[in-house]
Amino acid sequence: MSSGSTWRARSGRVDPGGTGVAWPPGSGLPGRASGVPWLLGGAWPPGSRGLRKWVSLCPGIAFRRSGQHPTGLFSHPMTDQELTLETHAEGDGLVIELGGSLDTRTSPLLSRELSTLAADGARGHRLILDLAGLSYVDSAGVAVILDARDRLAREGTELHLRRASERVRKVFTLALARADELQPEAPAQFWDPVGAAGEAALRLQGQARDTAVQIGEVAHALLVAPFRGYPIRFADTVQQLALIGVNATPIVSLIALLMGLILGMQSAHQLRQFGATLFIADLVGVATTRELGPLITAIVVAGRSGSAIAAEIGTMVVTEEIDALRTMGLQPTRYLFVPRILATTLAVPLLAVIANTIAILGGMMIGVVHLGIGAQTYFDRSVQALVMDDVVTGLVKAAVFGLIIGNVGVFEGCHVRGGAEGVGRATTQSVVSSIFLIIVADAVFTAIFYFV
Amino acid sequence: MSGGNGAPVIEVKDLVSGYGDRLVLHGVSLAVAPAEIHVVLGPSGCGKSTLLKHLVGLLEPTSGSIRLFGDEIVGLDEDALAHLLTRIGMLFQGGALIQSMTVLENVTLPLREHTSLTPAEIERVARMKLATVGLGAYQSLFPAELSGGMRKRAALARALALDPEVVLYDEPNAGLDPVTAAGIDQLILDVRDALGITMVVVSHELISIRRIADRITMLQDGAVVAAGTAAELERSQDPRIASFFRGTLPQDPGRERRLGELFLD
Question: Which of A297, B14, B117, B247 is the most buried (most CB within 10 A)?
């Protein structure tokens, strides 16, 4: 059967006499270029034109005549047969006789044949697929036929089947079971700026509402509930402080030291041009306490602990642990969220104090080793340059950064949708949102301190 | 044995609920008598689990009323609801044990939060509950180290920790082998007989339903289609009920028509 397969459909006309072109006739399929393959060509696999194109470019692989498929990808004991097509006119219609196996491997051939016929103007005609010679059909084959039927119907061409074997008919019966319950195919989506803007606005509104609810609940648990017999859970808070604060001390210290060294080296070079090297102490001291110490600390805590909070709470949402806590009469806000938010709010300023100190020490190392300023002189100069305001504004900012990190982590965790992947997305999102909001808050604070 | 008399422990009236635009429950009503095992059954996706989540206030209904022990919980504030929920235990489908705690810590959690017992007493209670469900030897394992059936039993021990008056089960037998499932059913019956706990069980396992149910409420597409004892429902001539109890497939009248459209012969 496989060697005698014939290819009688041609582009441009239908040849009922059947001069017959062997399939595959080499790389140059008659008329393939002149057809309109995209008309029906998207049929296999549904919605994936790229793969179909790939298959059509590699006929030697996709339609191998005999033996095993080279990769074994589609190899199947039943389907290791060719598909044969033979087209002839019958009455006012066309009949395509199918033989062999119509499966994942061979169905693109039928798909292309049907699109070629459609392009040739089968309009108004009846198309009949005669399945008498078909020994096997799989879901891909059924999909190609049903998809072609729907497309042809829109152009006024009817497609029918006949003479299917018992077994082939059973495959169609299975494929058509309960098809009325199928969701209708979504209409093609065009870019719709108004709709997109509306959806974005609704999403934003929903997020704003959820944010307000969370802030309200946390504020209630922090400020009101303790006076109504629901104390803040200090043991949990201390435990979180150890995780978020104490455990972060080494990395924050290391980063602060490097930052102090960098700041020292950068400013030493500039200040030396004016012979003002002593002012390195002022520059490093003020820049660190007012700005860089809290900022670097907050970024480290956001990446290290904000993400961990989002992942932990997100996982608990996915596994229904949050719901379970609620049904045990334990409110997650009080039990989980407040200790974490409180811990980040306390940990960031505390870590910032350490970061400030170590960064100034880093600057001092450059001053002493590189610029030859005495350690005592550097220290005196630093103390002289800094006023209490510098340190306090830095620490107030740090506390606000901590508040942001804790709240964003909890918020993203609570809004996880879609299992493990959702947890991953929430974790990433918590870091991105935290850092963005930290920078925004920093800008606002700087503007306030600058202008007021 | 059928449920006791007296005022219903749980009373749901005309509950309407949905996610977004999609309505899941269209006016569901049911009443659960004290010490009764009330099974809510129905095909997958009929709103059983949603109903159960409403009973413990995890979801906010669109309209309708839910009374627990005679108190309305729709619109109740969080603190009062939390207090009411200490009288109810709930068993989630996957167990919902806290993953970061051992089995014993999971069971002691509600006791630590809601009682003023000493740590030693709390541990004794928890170990008793674990022994009841047959997990006495596994108290120091983490939930991830347990099998599915063991997780459900551990969750049952946790649900029973505070000796609740009501226990709700979301598919206690789903995904378990027949022997383990029978063990869970026996446990449910034993606990009810010993402690007189009222139970609502969401399930679609026929064998289990026949074993444990005092009364049944059957849901389909978010509405109650039948209520009564298992025997009453099994005798029912209603095709929807009969197809569930006899396991027949729903009719698909469109299939022949669709085949006829496609095939000429």
Answer: A297
**Pairwise CA distance, residues B85 & B89, whole Å:** 8
Stretches where chain B sits below pLDDT 50 are 1-4
Backbone angles phi, psi at B237, to 5 degrees: -95, -10
Q: What is the pLDDT of residue A82?
A: 85
Question: Which pLDDT value is given to residue A91?
Answer: 80
Q: Which residues in chain A come in under a pLDDT of 50?
A: 1-75, 79
Closest A-chain CA to B164: A328
Whether residue B82 and residue A128 make contact (CB cut-off 8 A), yes or no, is: no
Residues in A closer than 8 angstroms to B94, CB to CB, are 319-320
- Please report, as a single letter, which amino acid is at residue B42: G
- Contact list in B for residue A326 (CB cut-off 8 A) is 56-58, 82, 85
pLDDT score for B154 = 92
Q: Residue B234: CB partners within 8 Å, gap ≥ 6?
A: B245
Rounded to the nearest angstrom, the minimum Cα separation between A412 and chain B is 19
pTM: 0.74
> For chain B, which residues make up each domain, given as ranges?
1-87+165-265, 94-163
Q: What is the pLDDT of residue B1?
A: 40
Query: CB neighbours (10 Å) of residue A104?
Result: 20
pLDDT at position A121 is 66
Strand, coil or helix: A151:
helix
Q: Do B262 and A319 touch (CB under 8 A)?
A: no
Q: How far is CA B43 from the centre of its chain?
A: 15
The pLDDT of residue B183 is 86
Per residue in B26-67, pLDDT (tens digit) is 889 999 999 999 999 887 778 888 899 999 988 889 899 999
Question: Which of A327, A331, A337 is best to mutate for the B interface (most B CBs within 10 A)?
Answer: A327
Interface of A with B (CB under 8 A): 128, 146, 149, 160-164, 169, 172-173, 176-180, 228, 230, 315-316, 319-321, 323-331
Q: At what angle do helices A338-365 and A388-414 cross, to 10 degrees?
A: 140
C-alpha distance from residue A325 to each of A184, A217, B91, B159, B200 (Å): 40, 16, 12, 11, 19
Determine the pLDDT at residue B179.
86
Q: Which residues pair with B68 in a beta bridge?
A: B10, B71
CATH number belonging to the domain at B1-87+165-265, selected among 3.40.50.1370, 3.40.50.300, 2.60.40.10, 3.40.50.2000: 3.40.50.300
Element (H, E) at A340: helix A338-365
